[in-house]
């Protein structure tokens, strides 16, 4: 029994009344609460304490300055988090969510949010159940309800049972009536209860937290050390305390986490604009370090626009010509009647159909099944098999076949190796024909039938193994699925980018090889593995890693999982595609599980990290490119930020090493001004750097954020150069003003010298921002204006610098004054000095790499 469903008029009316079928937005935490959170996390609390102590020690300016820093940082972090969250929410909205419903007596595809109560929905294995429903018909249905109940075994369901929105139909077919949508569903009730739950931290955020914690403890230890030294050299405790706080504040990287989150979100957004949808921000970073892509064939490398071009039966071979899904066409060859019978039998075991839509013939459902529909029509078969099957055994990649009981017949279609062994009378000629068709790149489908004797009820309860056997082979259908036109280019690009590739397909080895050859995926000597006799891990890895572009055919989901695990055991970062219900484990195990937005199941999409909205292989490569770019951006502003810290810390080191004899070049307030006046905006601009032209011409690297390269660049090259110019500018003014060792400098002189040091650091950081734009080439090769955001940030930085020097009250507050000409000139040297050091270092490293 099926229901007629609603009319579209009724549906529209109900939708108007009940609202869209979406979960009510989580009760959003108020902006103020979130901002409050930013102002009260660990570092902020530390700074609040410092401020309080400053007031207690009767240093009100310092106290106020620290409060300003906490507020600016907090607001800034808050804005970044909000932007990141908005971006993530927008991405979630792009996830495909189509549902088949019966409206106006026809089956149609609508967006899940348009469902209304009493809609008749059609569900197949792999679908996410879009709302709370009551099953009207159910064949071999099992539902994964773990997201509601935590129970991981699928629950069997029969007609009359309820199924809840948000759970997954993992087996069988059903037609169901919606009885609650949106906020009325059980899932909505539960998520209202749990919306406060915090998601567990991800590896990247753990690594970041670790970095922040290490740097912060370092800051505190150094601060304590200076406090002790200054007490020992007999400085008044209040001043030493001030120094200590300065060091701590200078080094604590408060702004790091939100900046990283935001640049991940921006990366995700850029990916989305290229049809790659990440389901969690972390994946952006993992994509950047991907080294191995395991891709399937159909739809990803090929167009998934199938066309049945040949039917082989015992009466001979019929070839068919025709365009797309248009049923007009011509057949040529012997045994057309048998061919038509084969096509109709295959159609009986299919759910996909070709449909005339706005004057255009299109595939409704699986393109291969639509092609079979078209084939039946071209062969003159009355393509109207509308008798619903009484029982179906659905396709899944591990069975590689699908069958249906219609009346007293069982019809079965599937991969020849999955169907022929179940037929009673096949001969060597058939096997030879399969090989022949497959080696021409055709996807071959075997079609079989069995007459089921006796009362049909007897067959309703028998297990599939009892039914799908002793069949009579009707024929073979050969389908052509051309490769995507640009896929050969993309494969070349991927190779240049140092990515290793393998085609992992459920298809016949000969078909897979023909396609792989055509698109240049398989290098010479050719190597084709079969899932059923995969060698042990050692040999498997030897095959996958020593050769370029191996084809693994006839794989089952379990074997995919094995391939992923083996590659990972060698340190590879694996992206693996999958579309079936059983691909979940492999998708989850892979570092990047890739699911398809157009084809494939909701179950696979749920398990994936990346969804390709266009199913296109090129999109994986584009996502990897953007992932690499984002990773470099994080690296960039980390370099930038830490270099600043070196420059800020040096005056304290010199002062301490001189036993307090050499005056402090920068005061605490100046450091705070550097942190919020000059550090924030360029760091943000660096995080928005577009992908460089060369990200795909380099091999992948698996790096930690704080790797040796970064350390060397910060602590041995950029940092020291900046610090050197800073201290020189300071000394030139100081000695030029007549200061001699051992005496406290005259206050006006000290302020002018300090102004020179401050200017040197700001200008050095300005050059540094440009130097950090690339890890390999000097900034002039990128073009000075190619990051507009950075240009604005630098202008802002210069304005802040001018204000800090030439607005007297501000300058006085910071403890500095406009430096004399000599000081300014020396400070200006920071720009060429940093650029030259950066250029020399990059040149040196570049030669080393070559
Ligand atoms: P691919 O890697 O090309 O996407 P699949 O794993 O999807 O391969 O399919 C494997 C084999 O299963 C195909 O070669 C075909 O013989 C068979 N097959 C695929 N889809 C269906 C279907 N809807 N019904 C029956 N058999 C199918
Ligand atoms: Mg497939």
Automatic annotation (TrEMBL):
Coiled coil: none annotated. Residues 2-59 form the Cation-transporting P-type ATPase N-terminal domain. PROSITE patterns: ATPASE_E1_E2 (PS00154). It holds the Pfam family Cation_ATPase_C. This is Cation-transporting P-type ATPase. Belongs to the cation transport ATPase (P-type) (TC 3.A.3) family. Type IIA subfamily. It is a multi-pass membrane protein. It is found in: Cell membrane. InterPro entries: ATPase_P-typ_cation-transptr_C (IPR006068), ATPase_P-typ_cation-transptr_N (IPR004014), ATPase_P-typ_cyto_dom_N (IPR023299), ATPase_P-typ_P_site (IPR018303), ATPase_P-typ_TM_dom_sf (IPR023298), ATPase_P-typ_transduc_dom_A_sf (IPR008250), ATPase_P-type_domA (IPR059000), Cation_transp_ATPase_P-type (IPR050510). It catalyses: ATP + H2O = ADP + phosphate + H(+).
């Amino acid at each position: 029994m099926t229901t007629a469903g609603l009319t579209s008029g009724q549906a529209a009316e109900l939708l108007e009344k009940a609202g869209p079928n979406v979960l009510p937005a989580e009760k959003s935490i108020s902006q103020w609460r979130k901002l409050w959170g930013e102002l009260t996390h660990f570092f902020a609390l530390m700074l609040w304490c410092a401020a309080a102590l400053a007031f207690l020690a009767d240093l009100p300016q310092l106290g106020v300055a620290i409060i300003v820093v906490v507020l600016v940082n907090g607001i800034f972090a808050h804005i970044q988090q909000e932007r990141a969250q908005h971006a993530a929410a927008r991405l979630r909205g792009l996830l495909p969510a189509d549902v088949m419903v019966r409206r106006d007596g026809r089956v149609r595809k609508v967006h899940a949010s348009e469902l209304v109560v009493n809609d008749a929905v059609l569900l197949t294995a792999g679908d996410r159940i879009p709302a709370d429903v009551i099953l009207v018909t159910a064949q071999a249905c099992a539902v994964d309800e773990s997201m509601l109940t935590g129970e991981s075994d699928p629950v069997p369901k029969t007609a009359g049972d309820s199924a809840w929105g948000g759970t997954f139909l993992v087996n069988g077919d059903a037609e169901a009536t919606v009885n609650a949508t949106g906020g009325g569903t059980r899932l909505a009730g539960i998520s209202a209860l749990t919306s406060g739950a915090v998601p567990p931290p991800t590896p990247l955020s753990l690594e970041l937290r670790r970095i922040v914690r290490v740097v912060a403890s370092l800051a505190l230890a150094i601060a304590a050390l200076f406090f002790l030294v200054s007490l020992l050299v007999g400085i008044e405790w209040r001043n030493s305390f001030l120094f200590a706080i300065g060091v701590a504040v200078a080094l604590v990287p408060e702004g790091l986490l939100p900046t990283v989150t935001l640049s991940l979100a921006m990366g995700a957004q850029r990916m989305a604009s290229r049809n790659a949808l990440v389901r969690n921000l972390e994946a952006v970073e993992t994509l950047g370090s991907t080294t191995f892509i395991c891709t399937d064939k159909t739809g990803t490398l090929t167009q998934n626009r199938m066309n049945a071009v040949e039917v082989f039966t015992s009466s001979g071979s019929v070839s068919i010509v025709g365009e797309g899904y248009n049923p007009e066409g011509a057949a040529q060859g012997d045994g057309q009647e048998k061919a038509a019978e084969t096509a109709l039998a295959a159609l009986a075991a299919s759910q996909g159909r070709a449909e005339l839509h706005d004057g255009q013939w299109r595939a409704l459902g699986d393109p291969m099944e639509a092609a079979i529909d078209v084939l039946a029509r071209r062969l003159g078969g009355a393509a109207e098999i509308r008798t619903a099957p009484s029982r179906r055994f659905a396709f899944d990649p591990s069975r590689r076949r699908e069958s249906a009981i219609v009346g007293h017949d069982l019809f079965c279609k599937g991969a020849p190796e999955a169907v022929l062994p179940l037929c009673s009378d096949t001969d060597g000629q058939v096997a030879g024909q399969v090989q022949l068709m497959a080696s021409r790149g055709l996807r071959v489908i075997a079609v079989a039938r069995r007459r089921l004797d006796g009362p049909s009820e007897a067959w309703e309860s028998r297990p599939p193994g009892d039914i799908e056997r002793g069949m009579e082979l009707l024929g073979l259908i050969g389908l052509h699925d051309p490769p995507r036109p640009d896929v050969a280019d993309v494969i070349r690009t991927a190779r240049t980018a140092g990515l290793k590739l393998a085609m992992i397909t459920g298809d016949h080895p000969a078909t897979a090889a023909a396609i792989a050859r055509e698109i240049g995926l398989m290098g010479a000597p050719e190597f084709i593995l079969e899932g059923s006799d995969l060698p042990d891990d050692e040999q498997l890895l030897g095959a996958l890693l020593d050769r370029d572009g191996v084809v693994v055919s006839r794989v089952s989901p379990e074997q995919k999982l094995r391939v992923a695990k083996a590659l990972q055991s060698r340190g590879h970062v694996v992206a693996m595609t999958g579309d079936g219900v059983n691909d979940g484990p492999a998708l989850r195990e892979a570092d990047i599980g890739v699911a398809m937005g157009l084809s494939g199941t909701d179950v696979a999409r749920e398990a994936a990290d990346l969804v390709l909205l266009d199913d296109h292989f090129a999109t994986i490569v584009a996502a990897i490119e953007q992932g690499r770019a984002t990773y470099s951006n994080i690296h960039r502003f980390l370099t930038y930020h830490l270099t600043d810290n070196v420059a800020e810390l040096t005056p304290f080191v010199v002062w301490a090493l001189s036993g307090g004899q050499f005056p402090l070049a920068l005061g605490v307030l100046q450091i705070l001004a550097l942190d919020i006046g000059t550090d924030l905006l360029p760091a943000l601009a660096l995080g928005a750097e577009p992908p460089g032209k060369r990200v795909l011409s380099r091999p992948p690297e698996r790096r930690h954020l704080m790797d040796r390269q970064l350390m060397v660049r910060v602590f041995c090259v950029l940092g020291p150069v900046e610090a050197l110019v800073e201290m020189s500018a300071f000394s030139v003014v100081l000695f030029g003003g007549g200061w001699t060792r051992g005496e406290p400098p005259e206050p006006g002189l000290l302020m002018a010298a300090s102004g020179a040091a401050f200017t040197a650091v700001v200008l050095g950081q300005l050059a540094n921002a440009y130097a950090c734009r690339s890890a390999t080439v000097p900034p002039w090769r990128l073009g000075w204006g190619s990051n507009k955001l950075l240009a604005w940030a630098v202008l802002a930085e210069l304005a802040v610098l001018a204000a800090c020097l030439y607005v007297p009250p501000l300058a006085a507050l910071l403890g500095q004054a406009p430096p004399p000409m000599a000081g300014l000139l020396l400070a200006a040297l920071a720009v060429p000095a940093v650029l030259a050091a950066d250029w020399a270092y990059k040149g040196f490293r570049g030669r080393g790499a070559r």
